[in-house]
């Protein structure tokens, strides 16, 4: 039986200010809230481990898989590009990162975020508007219900343009990202 679920997540934990790491962890904790509750009901621990870069996340994941054999160990990283229609997360990542050690990795352990985390925010423009308030420009965002298909540059430019005239200012990953994940 699995004793623990460990998810190694790509996320820059070295940004200015110690609160960045805490805010990002809290954001992911809220994002995985329902899954965490189901694990607790079965007395399974749930750990979210923020790792930094994509490569560091993968290395930490491989180490975690060795050190915690009674745990379900997985990783979650940005896709950075569009994933093919019939492509698994593992095969997609193997193409991008052929030099990584894939021999002990199963498809069930590989999870991809959308091209960038911020794509998730575009799925709930009402929440964006509530968070940023007056002068939020909803029209600056790409209108595509399949946020996974919106190019990274369109997401980043859209958020910058939609938020630049708000009281909170232009979207900033470490200042605003964790709050928007809640």
Query: What's the SSE pattern?
Result: EHHEHEHEHHHH
> What is the CATH level 1 assignment of the largest domain?
Alpha Beta
Distance linking N and C termini = 31 Å
Sheet-strand content, in percent, reads 5-15%
Helix content: 40-55%
Which structural class do you get from the secondary structure elements? alpha/beta
**What's the total count of β strands?**
4
Order of strands, widest sheet: 2-1-3-4
- Could you tell me the mean pLDDT? 89
Largest sheet: 4 strands, parallel
- The overall number of domains is 2
Number of helices: 8
Your description of this structure?
- The chain has 182 residues and is of the alpha/beta class.
- The protein folds into two domains: 110 residues, Rossmann fold, CATH 3.40.50; 63 residues, no CATH class.
- 42% of the residues lie in helices and 15% in strands.
- The chain is built from eight helices and four strands, in the order βααβαβαβαααα.
- Helix 1 runs parallel beside helix 8.
- The model has no long low-confidence stretch (mean pLDDT 89).
Short description:
The chain is of the alpha/beta class and 182 residues long. The protein is 42% helix and 15% strand. A four-stranded parallel beta sheet has the order 2-1-3-4, with helices on both faces.
Keywords:
182 residues; Rossmann fold; 4-stranded parallel β-sheet; alpha/beta; globular
Write the layout of secondary structure elements.
Elements: E1 4-10, H1 19-31, H2 33-41, E2 45-52, H3 54-67, E3 71-78, H4 89-96, E4 110-113, H5 119-122, H6 125-132, H7 152-163, H8 173-181
Parallel strand pairs: 1-2, 1-3, 3-4
């Amino acid at each position: 039986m699995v004793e623990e679920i460990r998810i190694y997540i790509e996320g820059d934990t070295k940004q200015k200010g110690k609160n960045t790491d805490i805010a990002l962890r809290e954001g992911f904790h809220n994002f995985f809230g329902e899954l965490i509750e189901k694990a607790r009901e079965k007395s399974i621990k749930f750990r979210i481990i923020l790792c930094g870069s994509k490569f560091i996340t993968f290395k930490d994941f491989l180490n975690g898989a060795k050190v915690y054999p009674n745990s379900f160990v997985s990783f979650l990283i940005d896709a950075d590009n569009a994933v093919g229609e019939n492509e698994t997360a593992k095969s997609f990542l193997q193409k991008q990162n052929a030099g990584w050690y894939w021999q002990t990795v199963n498809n069930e352990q590989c999870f991809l975020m959308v091209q960038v985390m911020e794509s998730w925010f575009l799925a709930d423009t009402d929440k964006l508007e509530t968070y940023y308030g007056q002068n939020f420009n909803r029209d600056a965002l790409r209108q595509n219900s399949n946020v996974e298909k919106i190019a990274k540059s369109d997401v980043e430019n859209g958020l910058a343009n939609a938020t630049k005239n708000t009281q909170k200012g232009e979207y900033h990953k470490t200042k605003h990202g964790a709050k928007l994940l809640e």
